[in-house]
Amino acid sequence: MTIAALWREPLVQAAVWSLATILLYLLAKRLHRRWPRWWLMPLAVAPALLMIAALALNVSYRDYIRGTHWLVALLGPATVAFAVPIYEQRALIRRRWPLLLAGMVAGSLTAVATSWALAYLLGIDGELRLSLLPRSISTPFAMEVSGEIGGIPDLTAVFVVLTGIIGAAVGDIVLARLPLRSTLAKGALFGVGAHGAGTARAHQIGREEGAIAGLVMVLVGLMNVALAPLIIQFMR
Amino acid sequence: MDSAMMHRSISIQLQRLLRRNRLVQIGLLGAFWAAGDVLARTTGLPLPGGIIGMALALVLFLAGGLKVASMKRGANWMLAEMLLFFVPAVLALLDHRELFGLLGLKIFALIVVSTTAVMCVTALTVDLCYRWTERHDDRGAVA
Questions:
Q1: Which of B74, B53, B61 is nearest to A76 (CA)?
Q2: What is the pTM of this model?
């Protein structure tokens, strides 16, 4: 069998792309540990390198995702993992849930309102604008909401990840400028603003911040999934 | 060794395995996710399986049916490496070449401005409420 024929085997492609994704992610992580700049975040570097490889080899997104979908599917069990930090911070949550709820409602409303208004100002409309709206929810939820309100779920996933990368960078700047007293506010900022990537950043800042970010991210997701039908009604 | 004792020693060994082995714990997380997924499908709940699985795990922790230690190592690993699972989703950009241009710049600007606004509003709301309740509590303590 020639190499070209071997490459056409779906199983070989799946193995190669999965391995490439994992290795480039690990490489990007090392890079970031060595030079901790926001634009060297693994979530920015690894996809960029993979995209260059895919373009060079003329591989389409469909071919790529067919082999690597199992990695995305691991977001399911990863969501279950949030039960641990949430359980460990249960005392704090029980005492402070009204504050967190207030932040989540205010943050979600700001997310939808600013996305809608800015899209309008910049002349972005139709499916693209609808795909931008569920951006502040973590991926599995966001894709669901996007499909429901008439957006393109694939694109929403990209916007969610972009929001995470940008949010983790912006979050550090906001954190340095705002006179925040409570760890609650610091965690909520990352959980509502930058979900998965932000929560990972919050975990690096502190255990409590990380747990609150994780909790708030999950709860904001739930809240927005529940509110999506209302939002569509409002926009029609 | 009688059968009751043997049963106990097996269950102790299983618990030990569960507490030490990260891979087994990740399997357990997967089992909760799968259970959540089945529940979502059979009941028609409009929630992802992971969220239902998380709720199940939380309920079991709170009810004392499951020790947090039997999930902690696996969970911490999953949370630390979660960014990896987002990587393949970004490649969807390959199908949307129209975003590599002015439109992409507009979207980038929108995300930067909107995310900054969301973070400021969320953090300030939480912090102002926090200060307000603290002051409230102080007054209560004095009175």
A1: B53
A2: 0.79
